[in-house]
Design brief:
This protein is mainly β and about 230 residues long. It has helices at about 25-30, 115-125, 130, 175-185; strands at about 5, 10-15, 20, 45-50, 55, 60, 65, 70, 75, 80-85, 100-110, 110-115, 135-140, 145, 155-160, 165-170, 195, 210-215, 220-225. The protein binds magnesium ion. Magnesium ion (MG) binds near residues 22, 79, 81 and 197.
Length: about 230
């Protein structure tokens, strides 16, 4: 069972489900534009899940998995994301009551094996391996919601080897936190222990072994990760 820690207490938070929202920042969607046309803006949230083995609260190294003696990918990419931590579960939660279900927030990175994801998308196959591999989702300490101001107006950044690659604001999210909670609770139901990755701004980039990653969201905190 994987757990997260809190910034201001020694409590532990046991993670149950890891929901992820894709394509939630317009500038990131445009990174997938091709000569054939613009990538589509979704009408409802794009949702996928990760196993709890994706979480790494106390470790700092992320590596491409090796299978049969070979790395399974050669295109590991970064996606810094605001993580919403659910403290109270429910079904069919209305958008106007949704924020009552939030316990706090954290900084997360949705590491992605882009070549595997692109190939799966092209074949119309699921892309769990591209997103849910072991240690694909480091998450910072949780900050309780009372300790921060508006979660939808926070600077969100990621640096690779000290160079800023992602620099956005959570106000740019297409689907708002309360709508995402409403939507997920209507389809899946939400439980205490669930966490939600809410999508990434532009600036995805190919990472290499030895790279150092610093992810940061104002008022919430920082994550320092090394690529192995
Ligand atoms: Mg993502």
């Amino acid at each position: 069972m994987d757990h997260l820690r809190f910034r201001s207490s020694s409590d532990k938070f046991v993670v149950r489900n890891i929901f992820c929202i894709g394509k939630n920042y317009l500038d990131h969607i445009k990174e997938f534009d091709t000569p054939a046309g613009a990538a589509e803006v979704p009408k409802t949230p794009v949702v996928f899940l990760k196993p709890t083995s994706a979480i790494m609260a106390d470790r700092v190294m992320v590596s491409i998995p090796v299978y049969n003696g070979k790395p399974i990918s050669n295109d590991l990419q970064n996606e810094v994301e605001l993580v919403v931590v659910i403290g109270k579960g429910g079904f069919d939660i209305t958008a106007d009551r949704a924020m009552e279900h939030v316990l706090g927030y954290a900084v997360g990175i949705d590491f992605t094996l882009r070549d595997i994801q692109s190939e799966a998308k092209a074949k119309g196959l699921p892309w769990e391996i591209a997103k849910g591999f072991r240690s694909s989702s480091p998450v910072s300490e949780i900050v309780r919601k009372e300790e921060i101001g508006d979660p939808e107006n926070l600077g969100i950044r990621l640096k690779v080897n000290g160079v800023t690659k992602q620099d956005g604001n959570t106000s740019q999210m297409i689907f708002r936190i309360n709508y995402i909670i409403h939507y997920l609770s209507s389809i899946f139901g939400l439980s205490e222990g669930d966490i939600i990755f809410t999508g990434t701004p532009a600036g995805i980039t190919k990472l290499n072994p030895g790279d150092t990653i610093e992810a940061e969201i104002d008022s919430i905190g920082k994550l320092n990760i090394k690529i192995g």
